[in-house]
TrEMBL record:
Binding-site residues for N(2)-acetyl-L-ornithine, renumbered to this chain: R141, T280
Primary residence: cytoplasm
CDD domains: OAT_like
Protein name: Acetylornithine aminotransferase
GO MF annotation: an example: pyridoxal phosphate binding
Protein EC: 2.6.1.11
Known partners and oligomeric status: Homodimer.
Top-rank taxon, per record: Bacteria
Annotated organism of origin: Iocasia fonsfrigidae
């Protein structure tokens, strides 16, 4: 089908949950560039919303997937799966956790984390089930993870939502302390908030949360669905802070483009799950596991994560140059290659995103006046220069 036919088909048959789709049908990609059916080239600084960590057509990932498709795509978790075993070992050997469960998405991983937290206290005979999350947080699209999300706009269409969630301001340790009650089971936090506008946690805040959870005998859950798997310049965002959680969730970049999520936990918590307590049909299937193993192996190669940090510093420096050039930029925030550009109140991020799209750049507006950048981790400094050059021209 041609572009107009595809758009018409979508309008006729697809549920209207996505508003304002861009008039682009991506046909193929290479590196950080994607190409529409008409051959138009775009530099992708969104990476499928933080998914395509290795960009498009990465030869190592392509080869691995071709081999796995020819060999075995899916089999039930009733049987042992070799790529899954490799993935289990890679994640546990490189994290602070002891056990892992595989899902299909970040929402599923977070749902599993919340179930595990409740089951942990249930096995101890304690009535603890409430979870405290933060304002601006985003934890998923299921009913429970929607309830956990600290943004009212996601709540309104589905109220009444499942109970047991309290939302407090992010980076406010006092508010968190005051919210803890006798039935609090866990605190669930994104070390770097993504959908909420790219807000990193403060060092003292995460340290304080760990101490608070220890004192009150509650669990600390890190949602690293967006900020994990190399995005911050470390394999996991918590490594940037030196603070460990009891439970951690991953997804997005983990499969390099193939859907997979992961729920990781320390042994004392993970052991609360017993046979039959949780499960999945597709989670950790051979294809998704092979994709994740390959993605992690590339990211863990010598110099890769150091390169992410170097390119992050360069990106931030170039964006900071815009502050000196125009009064239309208020600031830059983020960590690694997860960055936000806060604009003045006179600039619409949505309008600027469309202007950039028309010039061949894919970015994202996460708030009324905030642009989000989540480029593939293989982005080059020359690519960054091209984007910042266009931004400078538009903002002037």
């Amino acid at each position: 089908m041609l572009k107009d036919e595809i758009i018409k088909c979508d309008e006729n048959y697809f549920m209207t949950v996505y508003s304002g789709r861009y008039p682009l049908v991506i046909d193929h990609g290479s590196g950080i560039r994607v190409y529409g059916q008409d051959g138009q080239e775009y530099l992708d600084f969104l990476a499928g919303i933080g998914v395509n960590a290795l960009g498009y057509g990465h030869p190592v990932l392509v080869k691995a997937l071709q081999e796995q498709v020819a060999k075995l795509i899916h089999c039930s978790n009733l049987y042992y799966i070799e790529p899954q075993a490799y993935l289990e070992k890679l994640l546990i050997k490189n994290s602070c956790c002891d056990r892992v469960f595989f899902a299909n998405s970040g929402s599923e991983a977070n749902e599993g984390a919340l179930k595990l937290a409740r089951k942990y206290f249930k096995t101890r005979g304690e009535k603890k089930f409430e979870v405290i999350t933060a304002e601006r947080s985003f934890h998923g699209r299921t009913l429970v993870t929607t309830a956990a999300t600290g943004q009212e706009k996601y709540h309104k269409p589905y109220q009444p939502l499942p109970e047991g969630f309290t939302v407090v301001p992010f980076n406010d340790l006092t508010a968190m302390e005051e919210a803890v009650g006798p039935e609090t089971a866990a605190v669930m936090i994104e070390p770097v908030q993504g959908e909420g506008g790219v807000y990193p946690a403060e060092q003292e805040y995460l340290q304080g949360l760990r101490e608070l959870c220890n004192q009150k005998d509650i669990l600390l859950i890190f949602d690293e669905v967006q900020c994990g798997v190399g995005r911050t310049g470390s394999l996991f965002a918590y490594e940037e802070y030196g603070v460990e959680a009891d439970i951690m969730t991953l997804a997005k970049a983990l499969g390099g483009g193939v859907p997979i999520g992961a729920l990781l936990a320390k042994e004392k918590v993970a052991s609360a799950f017993e046979p039959g307590d949780h499960g999945t049909t597709f989670g950790g299937n051979p294809l998704a596991s092979r994709a994740a193993v390959t993605t992690l192996e590339v990211i863990l190669e010598d110099g890769f994560l150091e390169g992410v940090k170097e390119k992050s510093s360069y990106f931030i420096k170039q964006l900071e140059g815009l502050i000196a050039e125009t009064c239309n930029v208020k600031g830059i925030r983020g960590l690694g290659l997860m960055l936000a550009l806060e604009l003045s109140s006179s600039i619409s991020a949505k309008d600027l995103t469309m202007e950039l799209f028309n010039r061949g750049f894919l970015v994202n507006a996460v708030q009324e006046h905030t642009l989000r950048f989540l480029p593939p981790l293989i982005v080059e400094k020359a690519d960054i220069d091209l984007l910042v050059g266009e931004l400078a021209d538009l903002l002037k």
